[in-house]
Amino acid sequence: MAKASEINNGGQSGNGEPYFCKECKRNHTKGKIYKDHLKFARFEIDKNEIEEKSESNEKELESEVEEIFEDLEEDEDDIIELNEMEEEELDSDSNEVIINDANMCVEAIKKLPGVGEATLKKLIKAGFSSLESIAYTPPKIIQNESGLGDKTTAKLVKASMAQLKIGFKSAEDVWEYRKNISRITTGSQELDDLFGGGIETGCVVEFFGEFRTGKTQIAHQLCVNVQLPYEDGGLNGNALYIDTEGTFRPERIVQMSEGLDLDYKKILKNIIFGRAYNSDHQILLIKEAANLIKEKNIKLIIVDSLIGHFRSEYIGRGTLATRQQTINAHLHDLLRLTDIFPELCVIVTNQVQSKPDVFYGNPTVATGGNIVAHGSTIRVYLRKGKGEQRVAKMIDAPHLPEGEAVFSITENGITD
Ligand code: ADP
Ligand code: MG
Predict the structure, then answer these.
(1) 389-396 and 378-384: which strand pairing?
(2) Are residues 272 and 390 in the same domain?
(3) Are residues 219 and 269 in the same domain?
């Protein structure tokens, strides 16, 4: 979002305690959101820079990927500088920036009742540049960020929701919505079958399991597969990957693309990547995502992993309630996105803890506890099988039978 000042996150996460931010190398206040953290990057490779070599060996591949990362870091600096410049221009009170910037989304906001130039300017300056972002953000946050009054904000939210047809729906509307639901292939026929023909859009899917059970690999594979045309099991769309653990590997995307005979440069370019350095940052990236989905044709959002930061930041008994509340709000942000965009699939991963004191039944539970279990629409438990094999078990899905599927993780990605 475009606002440089700290934003109180609607009281969702704040217990006001300072923590050391590894990214900015300075102290931050917990519960406040910092603009410096907003760095989305696209994995773009300049065609002229890298000669295409049909028989490139792994070493060459690695160095290519390193180059991508170096370029990316430079790009990120540019992006931030650009944002700061834009902001200065805005601060200097010129309406031109906004008016020149007007795109389709902004046009839609302009048409809301009571939105004049001043209101529009405040909204855009605060990062609300689409109907979706207004409808989807709690009014209190819009108010805090934009400085608009509560009545104006309430009116704007209501009008945006009406425009987007959010709220009570008839069963017929729900049926209409479900007609827009599509599916992404996982690459494994068995796994697709478990989901009733691929992972469906319009809901949040949680993969949970122990370390190395394939959660991150599935996330990578879906970022490639979502870009396939519909007839090949994709959605002809792009992916947004929020990495909280630093385990995103472009090299794997390259391997998986090549496994499907796809141009990996194109595939990388269509993955928008955000590294979340702490839970506040993670929450902010998802809020920002509401603005990106339409503009960048995003059909898949990955949060890998959902809980990790929350678990390490909220330590001790006294913090459990706040932690669960914050995770709950974050998960609802994700659910709301799928409510607005039927052709969006949200995948979250969740690492489970072993519970050595449980001797029967399932010895593992998802770390988020009950909150995550109830918020997600579809939950799948992963465990290791023989060698490269993994077993997926459908735990909780409103309309899918319980069952298991065996799939493999190979160099080329997920297969049967
Ligand atoms: P997690 O569930 O912890 O996210 P991952 O999705 O990272 O686990 O899965 C890690 C596993 O994926 C490894 O143990 C390995 O079996 C498999 N894997 C990762 N990279 C490759 C590769 N290049 N070729 C084959 N298998 C791989
Ligand atoms: Mg992982």
Answers:
(1) antiparallel
(2) yes
(3) yes
User: Domain count of the chain?
Assistant: 3
- Does residue 313 sit in the same domain as residue 404? yes
Residue 19 and residue 139 in one domain: no
If you take atom 18 of ligand 1, which residue's CA is the nearest one?
409
Residues touching ligand 1 (Cβ under 6 Å) are 209, 211-217, 255, 388, 409-411
Distance in Å, CA 10 to ligand 2 centroid:
30
Contact status, residue 336 vs residue 375, Cβ threshold 8 Å: no
| pLDDT digit string, tens, across residues 313-363 | 888 767 777 787 788 888 888 988 888 888 999 999 998 865 544 444 454
pLDDT of residue 371: 54
364 and 282 in a single domain? The answer is yes
At 60-118, the pLDDT tens digits run 555 655 554 555 455 444 444 434 444 444 344 333 333 333 467 788 888 888 888 89
Supply the range of the domain harboring residue 156. Answer: 111-164
Question: What's the CA-to-centroid distance between 259 and ligand 2, angstroms?
Answer: 21
Distance 247 CA to ligand 1 centre (A): 10
User: Does residue 152 share a domain with residue 80?
Assistant: no
Judgement on whether residues 123 and 249 belong to the same structural domain of the protein? no
Please state the pTM of the whole predicted model. 0.70
The closest of 196, 260, 138, 121 to 398, measured between CA atoms, is: 196
Q: How many residues does the chain have?
A: 416
Contact assessment for residue 276 and residue 287, using Cβ atoms and an 8 Å cutoff: no
Burial of residue 57 (CB within 10 Å: 0-12, 13-18, 19+) is exposed
Sign of the torsion angle spanned by Cα atoms 323, 329, 330, 335: positive
> Which residues place a Cβ less than 5 A from the ion ligand 2?
215-216, 247
